[in-house]
Amino acid sequence: MARALVVGESLVDVVRSADGTVAEHPGGSPLNVAYGLGRLGHGVSLLTRLGDDEHGRLLTGHLAAGAVALAPGAVDELPTSVARAQLDEQGRASYDFELQWRLPAAGADELLGGGVDGGVDVVHTGSIGAAVAPGAQQVLELLRSARSRATTSYDPNVRPAFLGSPEQALPLVEAFVESADVVKASDEDVAWLCPGEDVVDVARRWQRRGPALVVVTLGGDGAVGVAGAGTLRVPAPPTRVVDTVGAGDAFTAGLLHALAGHDLLGPAAARRLRALRLDALEDVLRTAARVASLTCSRAGANPPTREELAAG
Predict the structure, then answer these.
(1) Which CATH superfamily, name and number, covers 3-311?
(2) Tens digit of pLDDT for each residue in 28-37?
(3) Does the chain have fewer CB atoms within 10 Å around its N or its C terminus?
Protein backbone atom coordinates (compact mmCIF):
# COMPACT_ATOMS: atom_id res chain seq x y z
CA MET A 1 0.00 0.00 0.00
CA ALA A 2 1.19 3.53 -0.80
CA ARG A 3 1.67 6.44 1.59
CA ALA A 4 0.03 9.57 0.20
CA LEU A 5 -0.05 13.27 0.97
CA VAL A 6 -3.02 15.03 -0.63
CA VAL A 7 -3.07 18.85 -0.76
CA GLY A 8 -6.07 21.08 -1.35
CA GLU A 9 -9.56 22.17 -0.37
CA SER A 10 -12.15 20.44 1.79
CA LEU A 11 -15.81 21.43 1.66
CA VAL A 12 -19.37 20.24 2.06
CA ASP A 13 -21.43 19.48 -1.06
CA VAL A 14 -25.01 20.63 -0.63
CA VAL A 15 -26.64 18.62 -3.42
CA ARG A 16 -30.06 19.48 -4.86
CA SER A 17 -31.46 16.71 -7.03
CA ALA A 18 -33.58 17.28 -10.12
CA ASP A 19 -36.67 16.45 -8.03
CA GLY A 20 -35.79 19.17 -5.49
CA THR A 21 -34.54 16.98 -2.63
CA VAL A 22 -31.43 18.24 -0.80
CA ALA A 23 -28.63 16.26 0.84
CA GLU A 24 -25.26 17.21 2.34
CA HIS A 25 -22.12 15.23 1.54
CA PRO A 26 -18.43 15.74 2.37
CA GLY A 27 -16.64 17.01 -0.74
CA GLY A 28 -13.85 18.93 -2.36
CA SER A 29 -11.76 17.21 -5.01
CA PRO A 30 -8.60 16.71 -2.88
CA LEU A 31 -10.64 15.52 0.10
CA ASN A 32 -12.45 13.05 -2.17
CA VAL A 33 -9.17 11.72 -3.54
CA ALA A 34 -7.73 11.35 -0.02
CA TYR A 35 -10.88 9.57 1.18
CA GLY A 36 -10.87 7.32 -1.89
CA LEU A 37 -7.26 6.32 -1.29
CA GLY A 38 -8.00 5.67 2.38
CA ARG A 39 -10.96 3.45 1.45
CA LEU A 40 -8.66 1.52 -0.87
CA GLY A 41 -6.29 0.80 2.02
CA HIS A 42 -3.55 3.40 1.60
CA GLY A 43 -2.05 5.55 4.34
CA VAL A 44 -3.19 9.13 3.69
CA SER A 45 -2.61 12.58 5.16
CA LEU A 46 -4.64 15.56 3.94
CA LEU A 47 -3.14 19.06 3.97
CA THR A 48 -6.25 21.23 3.88
CA ARG A 49 -8.31 23.76 5.87
CA LEU A 50 -11.76 23.63 7.43
CA GLY A 51 -13.67 25.47 10.13
CA ASP A 52 -14.50 24.64 13.73
CA ASP A 53 -18.22 24.42 12.93
CA GLU A 54 -20.93 21.90 12.15
CA HIS A 55 -19.78 21.40 8.57
CA GLY A 56 -16.17 21.07 9.74
CA ARG A 57 -17.16 18.36 12.19
CA LEU A 58 -19.00 16.55 9.39
CA LEU A 59 -15.75 16.55 7.40
CA THR A 60 -13.48 15.46 10.26
CA GLY A 61 -15.81 12.57 11.08
CA HIS A 62 -15.92 11.55 7.42
CA LEU A 63 -12.14 11.63 7.10
CA ALA A 64 -11.68 9.63 10.29
CA ALA A 65 -14.06 6.99 8.93
CA GLY A 66 -11.85 6.75 5.84
CA ALA A 67 -8.64 6.51 7.91
CA VAL A 68 -7.41 9.87 6.56
CA ALA A 69 -5.23 11.95 8.90
CA LEU A 70 -5.48 15.74 8.93
CA ALA A 71 -2.15 17.54 8.59
CA PRO A 72 -1.35 20.04 11.37
CA GLY A 73 -3.06 23.44 11.22
CA ALA A 74 -6.09 22.31 9.22
CA VAL A 75 -8.79 23.72 11.52
CA ASP A 76 -9.09 27.53 11.79
CA GLU A 77 -11.60 30.23 12.73
CA LEU A 78 -13.13 30.67 9.24
CA PRO A 79 -16.30 28.89 8.09
CA THR A 80 -15.99 25.53 6.37
CA SER A 81 -16.31 25.91 2.60
CA VAL A 82 -19.51 24.87 0.84
CA ALA A 83 -20.23 23.79 -2.75
CA ARG A 84 -23.87 23.90 -3.83
CA ALA A 85 -24.44 21.26 -6.53
CA GLN A 86 -27.50 21.12 -8.79
CA LEU A 87 -28.11 17.76 -10.49
CA ASP A 88 -29.88 17.47 -13.83
CA GLU A 89 -32.06 14.58 -15.00
CA GLN A 90 -28.96 12.59 -16.03
CA GLY A 91 -27.28 13.06 -12.62
CA ARG A 92 -24.70 15.57 -13.91
CA ALA A 93 -23.70 18.25 -11.43
CA SER A 94 -23.18 22.01 -11.79
CA TYR A 95 -21.65 23.93 -8.87
CA ASP A 96 -21.72 27.23 -6.98
CA PHE A 97 -19.10 27.78 -4.26
CA GLU A 98 -18.74 29.57 -0.92
CA LEU A 99 -15.01 29.04 -0.47
CA GLN A 100 -12.38 29.83 2.13
CA TRP A 101 -8.93 28.56 1.09
CA ARG A 102 -5.46 28.89 2.51
CA LEU A 103 -2.55 26.48 2.77
CA PRO A 104 -1.82 25.65 6.42
CA ALA A 105 1.67 26.63 7.53
CA ALA A 106 2.99 23.08 7.86
CA GLY A 107 6.60 22.45 6.90
CA ALA A 108 7.13 20.56 3.66
CA ASP A 109 10.04 18.57 5.07
CA GLU A 110 7.94 17.36 8.01
CA LEU A 111 5.05 16.38 5.72
CA LEU A 112 7.14 14.76 3.00
CA GLY A 113 9.46 12.89 5.33
CA GLY A 114 12.60 11.14 4.21
CA GLY A 115 11.82 10.07 0.66
CA VAL A 116 12.88 6.49 -0.07
CA ASP A 117 13.54 5.66 3.58
CA GLY A 118 10.36 6.86 5.22
CA GLY A 119 8.50 9.63 3.44
CA VAL A 120 5.36 9.57 1.36
CA ASP A 121 5.20 7.72 -1.94
CA VAL A 122 2.89 10.14 -3.75
CA VAL A 123 1.85 13.78 -3.39
CA HIS A 124 -1.42 14.68 -5.11
CA THR A 125 -3.04 18.07 -5.64
CA GLY A 126 -5.42 19.88 -7.94
CA SER A 127 -8.74 21.66 -8.31
CA ILE A 128 -9.46 24.91 -6.46
CA GLY A 129 -6.53 24.55 -4.07
CA ALA A 130 -4.19 24.61 -7.06
CA ALA A 131 -5.97 27.55 -8.71
CA VAL A 132 -6.84 30.22 -6.12
CA ALA A 133 -4.16 32.74 -5.08
CA PRO A 134 -2.17 32.98 -2.90
CA GLY A 135 -2.53 29.34 -1.87
CA ALA A 136 -2.07 28.00 -5.40
CA GLN A 137 1.49 29.30 -5.68
CA GLN A 138 2.33 27.73 -2.31
CA VAL A 139 0.88 24.43 -3.50
CA LEU A 140 2.91 24.61 -6.72
CA GLU A 141 6.10 25.22 -4.74
CA LEU A 142 5.26 22.26 -2.49
CA LEU A 143 4.70 20.01 -5.51
CA ARG A 144 7.99 21.10 -7.04
CA SER A 145 9.87 20.44 -3.79
CA ALA A 146 8.22 17.03 -3.47
CA ARG A 147 9.19 15.75 -6.89
CA SER A 148 12.65 14.50 -5.89
CA ARG A 149 11.17 12.66 -2.90
CA ALA A 150 7.85 11.26 -4.15
CA THR A 151 5.73 10.68 -7.24
CA THR A 152 3.75 13.86 -7.90
CA SER A 153 0.16 13.85 -9.20
CA TYR A 154 -2.12 16.65 -10.47
CA ASP A 155 -5.74 16.97 -11.58
CA PRO A 156 -6.78 20.46 -12.80
CA ASN A 157 -10.47 19.65 -12.15
CA VAL A 158 -11.36 22.97 -13.78
CA ARG A 159 -13.79 25.31 -11.98
CA PRO A 160 -14.19 28.26 -14.38
CA ALA A 161 -15.61 30.54 -11.66
CA PHE A 162 -12.17 30.61 -10.04
CA LEU A 163 -10.02 30.74 -13.16
CA GLY A 164 -11.02 33.77 -15.25
CA SER A 165 -10.49 33.00 -18.92
CA PRO A 166 -8.76 29.93 -20.39
CA GLU A 167 -5.92 32.18 -21.54
CA GLN A 168 -5.43 33.36 -17.96
CA ALA A 169 -5.69 29.90 -16.45
CA LEU A 170 -3.59 27.81 -18.84
CA PRO A 171 -0.10 29.04 -17.77
CA LEU A 172 -0.70 28.03 -14.14
CA VAL A 173 -2.27 24.72 -15.14
CA GLU A 174 0.68 23.90 -17.37
CA ALA A 175 3.13 24.89 -14.61
CA PHE A 176 1.47 22.21 -12.48
CA VAL A 177 1.55 19.77 -15.41
CA GLU A 178 5.30 20.30 -15.76
CA SER A 179 5.74 19.61 -12.01
CA ALA A 180 3.75 16.35 -12.02
CA ASP A 181 4.69 12.78 -12.85
CA VAL A 182 1.03 11.79 -13.26
CA VAL A 183 -1.68 14.08 -14.67
CA LYS A 184 -5.36 13.23 -14.83
CA ALA A 185 -7.88 15.57 -16.47
CA SER A 186 -11.38 15.25 -17.87
CA ASP A 187 -12.31 15.93 -21.48
CA GLU A 188 -14.37 18.88 -20.16
CA ASP A 189 -11.25 20.30 -18.46
CA VAL A 190 -9.28 20.05 -21.68
CA ALA A 191 -12.09 21.49 -23.80
CA TRP A 192 -12.32 24.56 -21.53
CA LEU A 193 -8.56 25.10 -21.25
CA CYS A 194 -7.74 24.41 -24.92
CA PRO A 195 -10.92 25.12 -26.92
CA GLY A 196 -11.08 23.55 -30.35
CA GLU A 197 -8.14 21.19 -29.75
CA ASP A 198 -8.35 17.41 -29.79
CA VAL A 199 -8.08 16.09 -26.22
CA VAL A 200 -5.57 13.40 -27.20
CA ASP A 201 -3.35 15.97 -28.92
CA VAL A 202 -3.40 18.07 -25.74
CA ALA A 203 -2.61 15.02 -23.60
CA ARG A 204 0.34 14.16 -25.83
CA ARG A 205 1.63 17.73 -25.67
CA TRP A 206 1.33 17.77 -21.88
CA GLN A 207 3.08 14.39 -21.60
CA ARG A 208 6.04 15.74 -23.59
CA ARG A 209 6.31 18.63 -21.08
CA GLY A 210 7.31 16.37 -18.22
CA PRO A 211 4.78 13.86 -16.85
CA ALA A 212 5.38 10.15 -17.26
CA LEU A 213 1.64 9.62 -17.70
CA VAL A 214 -1.28 11.83 -18.75
CA VAL A 215 -4.81 10.43 -18.55
CA VAL A 216 -7.97 12.08 -19.86
CA THR A 217 -11.37 10.75 -18.78
CA LEU A 218 -14.06 10.77 -21.46
CA GLY A 219 -17.25 10.34 -19.43
CA GLY A 220 -19.33 7.47 -20.76
CA ASP A 221 -16.70 6.84 -23.45
CA GLY A 222 -14.05 5.67 -20.98
CA ALA A 223 -10.55 7.12 -20.71
CA VAL A 224 -7.37 7.56 -22.71
CA GLY A 225 -3.82 7.39 -21.37
CA VAL A 226 -0.64 8.78 -22.90
CA ALA A 227 2.73 7.42 -21.76
CA GLY A 228 6.17 7.13 -23.27
CA ALA A 229 5.20 3.77 -24.78
CA GLY A 230 2.20 5.20 -26.61
CA THR A 231 -1.49 6.01 -26.34
CA LEU A 232 -4.19 3.64 -25.09
CA ARG A 233 -7.97 4.01 -24.77
CA VAL A 234 -10.27 1.90 -22.56
CA PRO A 235 -14.09 1.86 -22.46
CA ALA A 236 -16.18 2.77 -19.43
CA PRO A 237 -17.60 -0.23 -17.55
CA PRO A 238 -21.38 -0.56 -17.80
CA THR A 239 -23.12 0.88 -14.74
CA ARG A 240 -26.42 2.32 -13.59
CA VAL A 241 -25.61 5.97 -12.86
CA VAL A 242 -27.18 7.46 -9.73
CA ASP A 243 -25.08 10.62 -9.94
CA THR A 244 -21.59 11.67 -11.04
CA VAL A 245 -20.60 13.58 -7.87
CA GLY A 246 -17.00 12.68 -7.07
CA ALA A 247 -16.62 10.32 -10.04
CA GLY A 248 -13.52 12.07 -11.40
CA ASP A 249 -11.91 12.09 -7.96
CA ALA A 250 -12.70 8.41 -7.53
CA PHE A 251 -11.02 7.78 -10.89
CA THR A 252 -7.93 9.63 -9.63
CA ALA A 253 -7.83 7.58 -6.43
CA GLY A 254 -8.26 4.42 -8.49
CA LEU A 255 -5.50 5.52 -10.85
CA LEU A 256 -3.02 6.04 -8.02
CA HIS A 257 -4.17 2.81 -6.36
CA ALA A 258 -3.55 0.87 -9.56
CA LEU A 259 -0.13 2.47 -10.06
CA ALA A 260 0.75 1.45 -6.49
CA GLY A 261 -0.38 -2.08 -7.31
CA HIS A 262 2.17 -2.15 -10.12
CA ASP A 263 4.87 -0.76 -7.78
CA LEU A 264 5.03 2.47 -9.79
CA LEU A 265 4.80 5.06 -6.99
CA GLY A 266 7.60 6.53 -4.89
CA PRO A 267 11.05 7.93 -5.68
CA ALA A 268 12.54 4.48 -6.22
CA ALA A 269 9.90 3.75 -8.89
CA ALA A 270 10.52 6.84 -11.04
CA ARG A 271 12.32 4.98 -13.82
CA ARG A 272 9.74 2.18 -13.88
CA LEU A 273 6.93 4.73 -14.17
CA ARG A 274 8.73 6.35 -17.11
CA ALA A 275 8.98 2.91 -18.73
CA LEU A 276 5.28 2.07 -18.20
CA ARG A 277 4.24 -0.59 -20.71
CA LEU A 278 0.94 -0.48 -22.57
CA ASP A 279 -0.32 -3.74 -21.01
CA ALA A 280 0.26 -2.32 -17.53
CA LEU A 281 -1.30 0.99 -18.60
CA GLU A 282 -4.42 -0.87 -19.74
CA ASP A 283 -4.79 -2.54 -16.35
CA VAL A 284 -4.24 0.79 -14.56
CA LEU A 285 -6.90 2.56 -16.65
CA ARG A 286 -9.43 -0.25 -16.32
CA THR A 287 -8.98 -0.33 -12.54
CA ALA A 288 -9.43 3.44 -12.28
CA ALA A 289 -12.54 3.25 -14.48
CA ARG A 290 -14.02 0.52 -12.25
CA VAL A 291 -13.50 2.67 -9.14
CA ALA A 292 -15.26 5.58 -10.87
CA SER A 293 -18.15 3.43 -12.12
CA LEU A 294 -18.80 2.01 -8.64
CA THR A 295 -18.88 5.57 -7.30
CA CYS A 296 -21.39 6.61 -9.97
CA SER A 297 -23.66 3.74 -8.97
CA ARG A 298 -24.46 5.36 -5.60
CA ALA A 299 -25.26 8.81 -4.27
CA GLY A 300 -22.55 11.37 -3.52
CA ALA A 301 -18.79 11.00 -3.45
CA ASN A 302 -18.91 7.50 -2.00
CA PRO A 303 -15.99 5.51 -3.49
CA PRO A 304 -15.55 1.78 -3.03
CA THR A 305 -13.40 -0.01 -0.48
CA ARG A 306 -10.64 -2.30 -1.63
CA GLU A 307 -12.94 -5.28 -0.90
CA GLU A 308 -15.78 -3.79 -2.94
CA LEU A 309 -13.41 -3.14 -5.84
CA ALA A 310 -12.14 -6.73 -5.72
CA ALA A 311 -15.73 -8.02 -5.71
CA GLY A 312 -16.41 -6.22 -8.98
Answers:
(1) Ribokinase (3.40.1190.20)
(2) 999 999 999 9
(3) C
